[in-house]
Amino acid sequence: MSKVIACYKWVADETDIKVNADSTLDISKAKGKISDYDRNAIEAAVQAAGALGGTAVALTFGTPKAKQSLKDALSRGPAEACYINAEEAARADGAVTAKALAAAVKKIENVSLVVCGEGASDTYARQTAPRIGAVLDWPVITSVSSVRFDGNALIAVRRLEDCMQTVKSELPAVIAVLPEMNSAPIPGLKAVLSAGKKPVTEFKAGDLGVDFAPKTTVSALKAYAMNRKSVIFSEGEIADKVKELTAALRKEGVL
Amino acid sequence: MSSLVTSNTTLSSLTDEQQLILNNVREFVQTEVKPRAPQIDKTAQFPHDLFKRCAELGLTGLAIDEEYGGLGQGVLMEQLVMEEIAKECPVLALILDAHLLSYRLINHFGSKEQKKRFIPPTASGAQITAMASTEATGSTNFAEQQPMGKRDGDGIILNGTKLFTTNSDVAGFYIVQGMVDGEFVNVIVEKGTPGLETGAIDHKLGMAGSSTGTVRFKNLRVPKENILAEHSDVQDASFALCFLNISSISIGLAEGVLEKTKTYLLNRTRNHKPLAGFQVVAHHLAKMQTQIELAKSILERAAKLYDEGRPDVVLTFMTKAFACEMAVDVANLCIQLHGAAGYMEETGIARYLRDAKCNTIGEISTDIHYDYIALRMGLPIDTSFPLFG
């Protein structure tokens, strides 16, 4: 039976993040959560597994803290979960994350589809799906708003900037889904209570034969500030004020 | 969402699954309940859509034994869920409370057959349930009530009227309490039974949407299969659990309105300073938070005693008396702190005070609770309490 993998990231809940006086971020008190769009990815994987007659598997790459995400992920429908437990995940860039996830996909075997969220709630780098596809040498379809299957082929509708594009690909493939893909329902209480009974496979960093050294480093992480200039155009006629306003906006690069 | 440490203290004793359940309930409340709450208040229409969602999520069977299709979660967990719902929509929590109250009576007084027949649809939410108890005279003193029926062979013929019944016109079945031939009885009356009528829905100060109304019985025959075991001891711990649910609703309500008030006062400025920064305002907020935490502490203790199998009924009465009065005080002060904005229905603050008032009266009023507590303290007050003697 083929497997459909839902990749998800355990991120800090942005509602708990505080901005310090120097604009640095305090995430020490932030609780974890499954990245918002990854909930859509999990639901999409469960639906795809149902359509393909396969099994949905939740897969995450994270620090030991991410272990607490497994029951949450499993309560959303996957039959099993895989967890790459690595401290290196804290410093991982898109390339490392994709290599780790791709290595796990290879170990899981018989995978027909990998589903990722379009981007993570914290970085929204949109790197994971394309890079997993590159590592596995599988076709990649991003910005997916709906999907259906025709035998061993996947037909996806992509929402692009100015059009909807329908593409067809043979399986196996990697897709990145938009939140409009599904409603990612809130799990029922019964599903939550039975999640702990589902199988979980844990991979250690050393099991995957992956170089975890990131090629990029984060030098600073700061909240962006919106400083109002509080300019008031109070002199002259209305037409003059509008001209002044538009000129000022052009000068700022807004228009 | 509050970032206070105290909010996490209670939750630290929960399992991963229970924490996850609470997270999901919170998400349900914020995304589905919160947007509907003002509309329910305005139209006073029973929220069938939200009750259905509660059933789908498993909330209607949260505390019910797994044997009967429930989830078997403890009393404390039920309180925490009630609290979460009441933060945004106290009336939805009240509807669930009334629904679960019927379950408690069947679970306590019912035979194995009655439990098998009536509890599973309660747990799944396939049927909404209600308890019909109050009459025009007698109130909590059932012995003073008019006889509501008489024995007829192995059944009972009911004739009478029950007032202020929550879920009155939406229930699939009712637990009816009252006096029959000088004895206190609990019977199950199913919707569609000849002789059952529901009256108009009461126009209440608050808790709009809970379909509180009159239920009438005209020569309604209750078969023996629907008569629960005779029991004159209504002060049992199972029944008193409803007082904890009402307490949780009041606590959640207070938390909800305080959080909204805090946000408002952090953003509303005077002399370019947030109002919440003025000491007099800050002290009000701090005192209200303290009152809420006190109520949560006594509730948690009472709930844990139930979960440990050694319920303390007096503590349950104390919890309801304190928590429900506290919520009225908090909601009232929150309106004051909002100024004119708080008095306007559009800001959604006034609703909390109207809803809060229900719980100092509903089920049993605060004064009756204090009577009972005084009695247990050995004070020489009127002891004519057939119900709680």
Brief account:
Chain A is an alpha/beta fold. Chain A has six helices and 13 strands.
Description of the structure:
- The complex is a heterodimer of chains A (255) and B (389).
- Chain A is of the alpha/beta class.
- Chain A folds into 2 domains: 205 residues, 3-Layer(aba) Sandwich (Rossmann fold), CATH 3.40.50; 31 residues.
- In chain A, a hairpin with a 5-residue loop joins strand 3 and strand 4.
- The model of chain A has no long low-confidence stretch (mean pLDDT 94).
- Chain B has 3 domains: 120 residues, Butyryl-Coa Dehydrogenase, subunit A, domain 1, CATH 1.10.540.10; 98 residues, Butyryl-CoA Dehydrogenase, subunit A, domain 2; 140 residues, Up-down Bundle (Butyryl-CoA Dehydrogenase, subunit A, domain 3).
- Helices cover 52% and strands 14% of the residues of chain B.
- Chain B has 13 helices and 9 strands.
- With 389 residues, chain B is of the alpha+beta class.
- In chain B, the strands form 3 sheets. Chain B has a 4-stranded antiparallel β-sheet, with no helix packed on it. Chain B has a 3-stranded mixed β-sheet with strand order 1-4-5, with helices on one face. A two-stranded antiparallel ribbon of chain B has the order 8-9.
- Chain B is globular, with a radius of gyration of 21 Å.
Keywords:
heterodimer; A: 255 residues; alpha/beta; Rossmann fold; nine-stranded mixed sheet; two-stranded antiparallel ribbon; B: 389 residues; alpha+beta; Butyryl-Coa Dehydrogenase, subunit A, domain 1; Butyryl-CoA Dehydrogenase, subunit A, domain 2; 3 domains; three-stranded mixed sheet; 52% helix; globular; disordered N terminus
